[in-house]
Design a protein that fits this description.
With 137 residues, the chain is an alpha+beta fold. The chain has 4 helices and 6 strands, in the order H-H-H-E-E-H-E-E-E-E.
Length: 137
């Protein structure tokens, strides 16, 4: 039986943001939440969610309201394996408003993703983002 290489592990971990982008494109709160572990946490500015059920509810409401018609992007900045089944990924991206052709600088974020492999599937155990651009007076 072949052993998976660290490179293969990293490729699989790097595919997780694409699953989030696809769920967002479909405005699918269920598919979005399914990328998270059952006991995952999601931290956004002003928001803390614990558990897949809370994430599903929040995103379903957001896709029907403030996130309706938006797109999301995220490009890897760094990825590190912490073991065979755990990785930390950092991305830069953000929410693209309806009608915009690109990501406005004020919407740019850096995000940290703690990823775990469970039953062969990579899931988000913890996610947090913060603005990439700070306001200047």
């Amino acid at each position: 039986m072949a052993t998976e290489t660290t490179e293969q592990t990293m490729e699989q971990a790097l595919a997780v943001p694409g699953r989030i982008v696809a769920a967002w494109r479909e405005n699918d709160g269920e598919a979005f939440a399914d990328v998270f572990a059952e006991d995952a946490t999601l931290v956004l500015p002003g928001t803390f969610l614990a558990g897949r059920r809370a994430i599903r509810s929040f995103m379903t409401e957001a896709f029907a309201g403030p996130f309706k018609g938006t797109r999301v992007t995220g490009d890897p900045v760094d990825v590190r394996a912490l073991g065979a089944d755990v990785a930390v990924l950092t991305t830069r991206g953000g929410v693209i408003p309806p009608g915009a052709t690109g990501l406005p600088a004020e919407n740019a974020i850096h995000a940290t993703w703690v990823l775990v492999r469970s039953a062969g599937d990579w899931l988000i155990a913890a996610y947090q983002n913060t603005p990439a651009v700070t306001a200047r007076s």
